[in-house]
Amino acid sequence: MSIFKKVVVQATALFVLVSTGSVYAYDVSFKPFTDVSNQDWFQNEVYSLSAIGIIDGYPDLTYKPDGILTREAFIKLLMTAKQQEVASSTIVAGAPADIEQGRWSYPYVAAAFERKWIDFMLDSEHKLHPETAITREEVASVVGKALLDSQTAEARDRWMAQGWKAEKEKRSFVDREAMKENFGPYAYYAVNQGIMEGDQTGFHPQQSLTRKEAAAIIYRLINKEVAARELEKVGFYAIRSYTAIQRLPLLNQVTLGWSHLEYSATGTAKLETASTEYRIPTGWEEVVQSANTAKINKDLMVYYGEKNLKDFLKDEPAQKAFIQSLKAVVTDSKYGFTGVTMDFEGLMDEASAPDYILFLKALKAALPTYPLSVAVQPEYYYKGYDLKEISALADTVILMAYDFTHLDSKLPSAPLPLVNDAVKRTLASVPKEKLVLGVSKQANQWITANGQSELMNPEIEAVEKRLMAPGVNQSVSLPFFLREITFQDDRGSHEVYYEDTTSIEKKLWLAKFYGLKGISLWYMGNYTDSDWALFQEK
């Protein structure tokens, strides 16, 4: 790379994670499947579902794509993919006779039965035979039933009366008469919706379903459901973002990174807007006017990440002075701010959590008509954020699900499985309607020479230039879902993980899967034309 920036590793924070000597202290697998390769048509489907915890591999790191799926295993996949509530303690009257409550699959089977999605699979003795291999016609039917269940009664009646018959004629599978007659209306709805398909030799209704086919079917089902979901887009206009000023119409909100807390002495503090990289820039009027023309909200971001943040949160006089200083800027009509985003980082001690809540309450009381957004770091080692209390106070919670970078293990900033885990943990305390997934456009570069590695954060422009250079190998690194770039030069061997457009799109997919409020983009100046085209498309 032609431009390098050395990474300052937060050693204290990372020690908590890797004190065992391995970054795998996270309860997330970063190992690829040994039997799923770039040549496999189902690779993306398998790794995508694995990243969000819907499918698992085996302890020997295989996926066994040609393995056969049982009825109960597929029902669990379906219920998990549709995020249906299941409870092992809930007894469902009339559930299949051969599924006892203590069985691992009982919650999923009982929930599916209660929704009348699997009644056609029960035999005359009301048994499911859960360990029987599920067939393609059974899969199509249960998926079709689940999809029809979300339609209006009128739409269902039309389909059951005539729609499925027309679909059957249209498809003309050579083995269509081999499908059980009572399966037809539901199976053909799954076909109509693009979830299942046949080939030149037919639909193969009695053929057992393989694990690779199951991954493809569930992935299509999820894609169909997330396609209709919209995400709010929040852009952080900070540092060097002027080049992206014309992108403001693509956003719902711009958060202006123009201020930070100044706290250097006990009892006094203020909002600083004129020094460091977080400052009101020359020509700010053009940015405000562009945001007004785009008719989007304008938040003022307040940043602080020094070690004495915990002291500030116990310093009531300093807090009062700061809040008054902040209020004066936020309410200044020349800026027209419509909200505040608090980005106080580095609260590792759980003892700081109550202090931060008290501060946010005082801030909210001082600016009651201004929506409050609060940026939080993942809970793994930052325990100073009481997510439930923050959620109760804030209008929006921004999860900064990145900066997991670790030198020795070469863990990049935002591998998709870890982002997913952070989101799931946060959703335990924050309603999805309030949660925004933070995406950071960055690259992590390891330069190795003489057995020693150095970690850098190269500039995005340099990464994009390097991608076009000769002698560069690049691919999608799985299961990270990040662009991996490798090359050699006189400095040594280089390995780069890059948040490119493809990986960003997968994070949008994840946010839509969970039905989150939106995504935030840190920071706007780093995003490329390709990225912005993606946001415009989505």
UniProtKB/TrEMBL annotation:
It holds the Pfam family Glyco_hydro_18. PROSITE patterns: GH18_2, SLH. This is Spore germination protein YaaH. Residues 29-92, 94-157, 170-232 form the SLH domain. Residues 237-538 form the GH18 domain. The keyword Signal applies. Keywords: Signal. InterPro entries: Chitinase_II/V-like_cat, GH, Glyco_hydro18_cat, SLH_dom. Residues 1-25 form the signal peptide. PANTHER family: CHITINASE DOMAIN-CONTAINING PROTEIN 1 (PTHR46066:SF2), CHITINASE DOMAIN-CONTAINING PROTEIN 1 FAMILY MEMBER (PTHR46066).
